[in-house]
Amino acid sequence: MAFSLWLSLVAICMMGAMSPGPSLALVLRHTLGGGRVPGVVAALFHALGVGFYALLTVWGLGKLIVQFPLLFQLITWGGAAYLAWLGVKALRAGKGGAMHPGQVISTNGQAAREGVLVALGNPKLILFFVALLSQFVTPDMSMTAKVIIVSTAMIIDGGWYVLVAVALSHSRVLPWLQQRAHWINRITGVLLIALALRVIAGPLV
Questions:
Q1: Which parts pass through the membrane (predicted)?
Q2: Which of 48, 77, 118, 187 lies at a C-alpha separation of 20 to 30 Å from 39?
Q3: If we measure between CA atoms, which residue out of 29, 37, 21, 25 comes closest to residue 105?
Q4: Whole-angstrom Cα distance, residue 53 to residue 179?
Q5: What DSSP letter does each residue of 91-144 carry, written as one string?
Q6: Which domain holds residue 125?
Q7: Which stretches within the chain are classed as H helix?
Q8: How many structural domains are present in the chain?
């Protein structure tokens, strides 16, 4: 995989990880309920779930492109529609969203279990990956390239949410985020809609 193409993959995976949703709420909840360690545990196990979906997507996309090109195109458009829906949802979130998690008492075991379940229990995540990885997967892609794609998705997802957990372990950070949640949501929404339009435009070259 060319370095410039990998950088595009990194940017898109970062957008996916940073978009508001249940994953962010999960990490926030466990960090506030149990401290830094449960938040980090939730982040790492969520990344494992993301890696599992990414692996399934990479394995299946090449065959799907060759055998069912029309179905592949429809699924890709469905993924783009999901990205756009996420963008609109973020734009309409205002100051709410995942910035106000409920108060819970969290343990490492609970954080690990829920981290995996939130990733695997969200069927929309597979659409997200189809929309993303359709830009990079080809029928003749090497095993090394597939490993790079899956590893990149896992590392970025886990790294982002670990960073969130560590940052939120400092009591001054959360109020700052809450005060600026509407701007975070608006910026994320615009970028997600732009990404959806890029997916509709066709594969990266």
A1: 41-61, 68-88, 115-133, 145-163, 183-201
A2: 187
A3: 29
A4: 34
A5: HH-TT-GGGSPPP----HHHHHHHHHHHHHT-THHHHHHHHHHTTT--TT--HH
A6: 3-201
A7: 3-18, 22-34, 36-67, 69-92, 108-120, 124-133, 143-168, 173-179, 181-201
A8: 1
